[in-house]
Amino acid sequence: MDFLNALVALSNFVLIPAVAYGSQLALGALGVTLIYGILRFSNFAHGDTMAFGTMTVILFTWLFQSWGISLGPLPTALLAIPFGIAATAVLVLATDRVVYRFYRAQKAKPVVFVIVSIGVMFIYNGLTRFVLGADDQRFADGERFIINVREFRELTGLSEGLGIKTTQGITVITAVIVVAVLFWFLNSTRTGKSMRAYSDNEDLALLSGINPERVVMVTWLIVAALITVAGTLYGLDKSYKPFTYFQLLLPIFASAIVGGLGSPLGAIAGGFVIAFSEVGITYAWKKVLGYLLPESLEPSGLVQLLATEYKFAVSFIILVAVLLFRPTGLFRGKSV
Amino acid sequence: MIRVENLHRHFGAFRAVDGASLEIAKGSITGLVGPNGAGKTTLFNVIAGALEPTSGTVIMDGEDITGLPPHELFHKGLLRTFQIAHEFSSMTCRENLMMVPGGQSGERLWNTWVGRKRIAEEERALAAKADEVLEFLTISHLADHPAGAISGGQKKLLELGRTMMVDAKIVFLDEVGAGVNRTLLNTIADTIVRLNAERGYTFCVIEHDMDFIGRICDPVIVMAEGKKLAEGTLDEIKANEAVIEAYLGTGLKNKEALA
Predict the structure, then answer these.
(1) Where are its TM segments located (chain A) (predicted)?
(2) β-sheet bridge partners, residue B232
(3) CB B67 within 8 A of CB B52
């Protein structure tokens, strides 16, 4: 019984939140990795693109709510996602046209692109705050739980409860679908193959008659979709605040780099590595250990390795360790 | 076919191509030779759109193609291969060839979802064509191998194969024979001659192997210090004093005269 209780507590506080968070990071990191693979720079505006995308989803959600449209038990935001993606796609394509294309024509070095993307970051940053403000926004509606703690206790008779939030369920399911479609797209369609070819050897792709502007455009469209979905899922699961999204840049980059920049598979693996480390290290293990250890060994402290406020330090330390010992990441991406 | 007029490409103070003017006749296999650093590869890079010229013009069939990007030149029928073979290393040899030509209907995002049948047909035709090309190049056993894992010489053949996937008008070959064994080199020479005769490809070939040049090229253009130095058959240019000087330096000739 104690073992089961420990398992339930572990699932409730570590496994399920980490899987949901990992899925969100994975989607974010896929965007970073695609931009790195195709456009060959680290996009620092990624976090704020996510904030912008989520903001448009929130605005559309509110619009639909004011019209009385809802999805019943599911959050209305799911209905707003396609519109949010469209708005984000317009924004990133316009940015590419006005800003990045100029530097592509100059054949600017990647470091120039990075600095340019920091400029873009500030603009998006201001844009989001200008439209929606810097405050916390809640936009989740519908059922809150798939299973809630009390029901679970009554059902199983265990003293520990297990709660699965609807948003966590939706996060995982959506992430699986999005990743499946993305991999099918990259591996089986001609457009996806052109993208891989372009990422592999730009000169040769051009000589094969592949239009680079088209490849770049498709990449931005995919990135807009990925980032809007990731941001919306994160916002539903936790809450929406532009500054938090800017901060997510660190774990997202850490995920992409841990997995190996340029490798989509790596981005997903990296997302989960970071999420599990972050949640595991900032979780107070007292309860789980209390169930598992004999009474005499029961810890008196919280057994929390790091306070929650320092969670970003986890990404940072992993990032530094990977860059020192295996700069190409788990899946042998490009070295940074 | 191709007319290059007073072309310059400078890298800072270094003039890699320094006022080159030359013409490549339609249907010819033109050899481009010259000592190392004569500007041959830079000239290729400028013609094929990899580098912008500092000044000067490139005319193809009466049309100014100066500074066009490589993918647009591809669609005009101007192709090139690299001195060091390039390939999509994570794809198989067949897939490598099937990337050519760009601009297939499957590359449009919309068609990916609604035009599946048309794309499938196109892909089938391409796969058949790719197999035919691999057969022609005697490397059909490598069709399903990742292109990153085949030998250097085989990569050169694959490069040549890329140009056979479409009806090219003119193909620029940059040291297609370097690092390739004799037998394979003969295959390549035969392939070039056949493509020239049967499919009307015009070739411009950079090569250091004079036997190879002598076998397939007429005329031969000699470049030195970024300019055209001489043009003629291999025997003519071998007898040209300026050419000997460029290759061997001035000193030697005087010594020979003394001896």
Answers:
(1) 20-39, 51-71, 77-99, 111-132, 168-186, 215-236, 305-325
(2) B220
(3) yes
**Domain tally, chain B:** 1
Closest chain B CA to residue A184: B112
Does residue A309 belong to any structural domain of this protein? no
Q: Using one digit for the tens of pLDDT, what is the confidence trace for A292-304?
A: 888 888 888 888 8
The minimum CA-CA distance between B63 and chain A, rounded to whole Å, is 19
**Contacts with B24 (C-beta within 8 Å, 6 or more apart), sequence order:** B1, B2, B3, B30, B170, B202, B204
Specify the range with the lowest mean pLDDT, choosing from A15-29, A112-126, B204-218: B204-218
Q: Exposure pattern of B20-51 as b/e (b: 16+ CB <10 Å)?
A: bebbbeeebbbbbbbbeebbbbbbbbbbbbbb
Mean pLDDT for B154-170 is: 88
Domain that holds residue B160: 2-258
Is A123 a domain residue? yes
- The DSSP symbol for A96 reads I
Domain membership flag for residue A175: yes
Inter-chain touch A205–B74, beta carbons under 8 Å: no
Nearest to A208 among B69, B101, B123 (CB): B101
Number of domains in chain A: 1
Establish, for the pair of chains A and B, how many residue pairs have beta carbons separated by less than 8 Å.
Answer: 89
What is the Cα–Cα distance from B180 to B191, expressed in whole angstroms? 14
Min Cα separation B72/chain A (Å)? 7
Please spell the DSSP secondary structure of chain B, one letter per residue: -EEEEEEEEEETTEEEEEEEEEEE-TT-EEEEE-STTSSHHHHHHHHTTSS--SEEEEEETTEE-TT--HHHHHHTTEEE--SS----TTSBHHHHHHTPSS--GGGSHHHHHH-HHHHHHHHHHHHHHHHHHHHHTT-GGGTTSBGGGS-HHHHHHHHHHHHHTTT-SEEEEESTTTT--HHHHHHHHHHHHHHHHHS--EEEEE-S-HHHHHHH-BSEEEEETTEEEEEE-HHHHHH-HHHHHHHH-HHHHHHHHH-
A106 near B CB under 8 A: no
DSSP characters for A5-58? HHHHHHIIIIIHHHHHHHHHHHHHHHHHHHHHHHT-S--TTHHHHHHHHHHHHH
Cα separation of A13 and A285, whole Å? 10
Q: For B233-258, what is each residue's pLDDT tens digit? A: 888 888 888 888 877 665 555 545 44
pLDDT at A267 over 80: yes
* CATH code for the domain of B76: 3.40.50.300
The alpha-carbon gap from B253 to the nearest alpha carbon of chain A, in Å, equals: 42
Flag whether A81 is in a domain.
yes
Give the structural domain span for A210. Answer: 16-243
Instruction: Give A 146-185 residues with CB within 8 A of chain B.
Output: 185
Q: Does A208 touch chain B (CB under 8 A)?
A: yes
Average pLDDT over chain A reads 91
pLDDT tens-digit readout, A110-153 = 999 999 999 999 999 999 999 999 999 988 888 888 888 888 88
